[in-house]
Amino acid sequence: MSGLVWLDGRIGPPAEARIDPGDRGFLLGDGIFETMRVVNGHPPLIELHLDRLAEGARLLRLSPPHRRELCQAITETIAANRLRDGALRLTLTRGPGPRGLLPPEETQETVLIATFPSTPTLPAVNLHISRQIRHGDTILSRVKTLNYLPSILARMEAQDAGADDALLLNQAGRLACASAATLVALRGDRLVTPPLSDGALPGIGRRRLLASGLCIEQEIARDLPDVRAAWLLNALSLRVVRSVGHRQFSPDRDWTARIRQCAHPA
After folding, report:
1. 260 to each of 23, 68, 205, how far by Cα in Å?
2. Highest taxon of the source (predicted)?
3. What are the tens digits of pLDDT across the range 143-183?
4. Among 28, 40, 175, 192, which one is least packed by beta carbons within 10 Å?
5. How far is it, in rounded angstroms, from Cα 90 to Cα 67?
6. How far apart are CA 189 and CA 42, in angstroms?
7. H or E element, residue 258
8. Are 118 and 85 a contacting pair, CB within 8 Å?
9. What homologous superfamily is domain 125-263 in, according to CATH?
């Protein structure tokens, strides 16, 4: 985290930002978040991110601030940090509450917005198949919640195996996604990505690829049959997959450029 942060209507240094010790996001992971690219001082896909935030809030019965207020807060935070290119994270929790699982009848949600500088282009990745499971039949697979323990454990497993990242399977043993990215694969001359019903997160870049007709949803077995190239895609990066276990893949520069142009517009 760098520069100034926006917390519940006030902008200041991170060291002065204080979250209530009873905040359910801190204690129970009761919240959601969105990470956005910032290009030339503006998140180009902000409306899609706020749509997903609103849908996640609806599913989890959270009450986010009005969209106009969020847009204004995002604009103010980017301006306060004089950020041209980088990333922004918006975190929404249910706010403080009493001890126990049930939230209070009246909640005061916590909103935190932080910015981050640009990161260098990331190299190709070697992937490990994780023991962690994505359950496609639960709403939690459709929401970016604050509880990322399965992904954290999957990434640690990958590190132990000498890999860069991990792929997670669903309960049927098919590929769902990576620890923090959408899996996109090239079969013949067609891009495919696992369906939401297989546990894939509804990523913004994924959504744009599907809407453009460049990609279709298709089940992908763990051994990636007939796949000749693959990528990991999220809001901030597109990474070429070099290998999954002992299976090697060849990079495809043309498809890499086409995916990036569609998923990461300026």
Report:
1. 38, 29, 9
2. Bacteria
3. 999 999 999 999 999 999 999 999 999 999 999 999 999 99
4. 40
5. 12
6. 34
7. helix 253-263
8. yes
9. D-amino Acid Aminotransferase, subunit A, domain 2 (3.20.10.10)
